[in-house]
Amino acid sequence: YYGYIKFDPCITDFPEKGCHVIVGAGNNELNFHVKLPSDQMKEGSFKVTRM
C-alpha cells in the first residue's frame, strides 16, 4: 500500500498457533495479512483514529 508503514513479519497464535502476520498502518487504517498453517491467506482492516 502506497504511503503505509509495513511492520516486520511476525508469528502469532491467533486465530491458530503458528500463523504468520504482516501488519501495515496508514490512512487511518490498520491492515493485516494472516497466513494460516494450511497456507490459506486472510486479510482484514480496522479503522483507527489514533495510534
Features of the shown structure:
51 residues, five-stranded antiparallel sheet, mainly beta, 0% helix, elongated, single chain
Characterise the protein shown here.
It comes from Cirrhinus mrigala (Mrigala). This is Sorting nexin-17/31 FERM domain-containing protein. InterPro entries: PH-like_dom_sf, SNX17/31_FERM. This protein is mainly β and 51 residues long. It has one domain. The protein is 0% helix and 53% strand. Strands 1, 2, 3, 4 and 5 form a 5-stranded antiparallel beta sheet that branches. A hairpin with a 5-residue loop joins β4 and β5. The chain starts with a strand and ends with a strand. The model has no long low-confidence stretch (mean pLDDT 93).
What is the string of helix and strand elements? EEEEE
Strand content: over 45%
- Indicate the structural class: mainly beta
Distance between the termini: 18 Å
Largest sheet: 5 strands, antiparallel
Number of domains: 1
Output the number of helix runs: 0
| Rounded mean pLDDT score | 93
| Fraction of residues in H or I helices | under 10%
**Radius of gyration over alpha carbons?**
11 Å
**What ranges have pLDDT less than 50 throughout 5 or more consecutive residues?**
none
The 3D shape can be described as: elongated
The number of E-state strands comes to: 5
Assembly classification: single chain
